[in-house]
Amino acid sequence: ACHSTLDPLLPGIGPHTRRDQIYPYLPPNPLVDEEVISNRREFSTVRALTVTSEFMFKGGPEIIRAFEQLTRLPVKLTLITREETIPADWKKRIGALSNVEYHPFNFGPEEMQRIYAEHHFLLHPTLKDSFALVVLEAMKSGLPVIATSLYAIPEMVNKTNGQLTKPPLHYFDSRNLPNPDIWKQDRKLNDRPAFELLSDFIVEAVKTWVDDPALLIRQSLASWRKANEAPFSRACIHEQWNRLYASIIEGRNEGLSL
Fold first, then answer.
1. d(CA 101, CA 94)
2. pLDDT in tens, 202-239
3. Three-class SS of residue 103?
4. Residues 22, 86: Cα–Cα separation, whole Å
5. Would 194 disulfide with which of 25, 65, 104, 240, CB 3.0-4.6 Å?
6. How far is residue 144's CA from residue 148's CA, in Å, rounded to a whole number?
7. Which candidate, 232, 198, 154, places its Cα nearest to that of 58?
8. Lowest mean pLDDT among 8-12, 42-46, 65-69, 162-166
């Protein structure tokens, strides 16, 4: 997504400029391997995870509305977010749900590794995002992802390791450029109802995995493998940076690199 926006955003760089796309590196979760993922089928309850610093912008209302409809299924949500981003009415709805466990957004890296390892999938139906590092973080722990197809998320998630839907708001247009009409309304999203179609998608996506544990495990393994192979692996990213560094040192850098 970022690579494709270079020409419209920086028209002066020219078509012959060198362009390297290097993804951010996240280390594998040392608590997770294929055996750990396969053993998740033994859980009596499917455990969903949401990790976000912004409840309203990252699909929080849609997730809570979905779990209000999922109370009879063996699925529970761990919600990790900053309390100050949750409006009072949504706090009440969260507190009324026995299938939602809330935690403040203050876990350290080792604690997060444990939390990821103990869950089955990530919910990230975001309205406003770019690369969404939390998605790659979850994949490194073998979590498939339910998300919106916003900006770079489809570069990490597809039908083999998750379920995607279009966002109800388009912060970026079809060329992945900022949509000024939506960005101008940004603050209004702090006071809004849930987008029902997105919430309904979450309900059906969760049911798919609850009803078919074998599919959930297959997509979990696919997510873990995808996140730990090129272009997201340490070896691949290390090689890309070394190659770029060498070309700069040797005076052969041809232009802008991303």
1. 8
2. 999 999 999 999 999 999 999 999 999 999 999 999 99
3. strand
4. 34
5. 65
6. 13
7. 198
8. 8-12
Total residues belonging to the chain: 258
Q: With contact defined as beta carbons under 8 Å apart, do 124 and 52 qualify?
A: yes
Per-residue pLDDT of 117-158, as tens digits, reads: 999 999 999 998 888 999 999 999 999 999 999 999 999 999
CA 23 to CA 237: how far, in whole Å? 7
Handedness of CA 246, 252, 256, 258 (dihedral sign): negative
Cα gap 3→152, rounded to integer Å: 10
45 within 8 A of 120, measured Cβ to Cβ: no
Strands 75-81 and 121-124 turn out to be: unpaired
pLDDT at 100 over 50: yes
Distance CA 46, CA 58 (A): 22
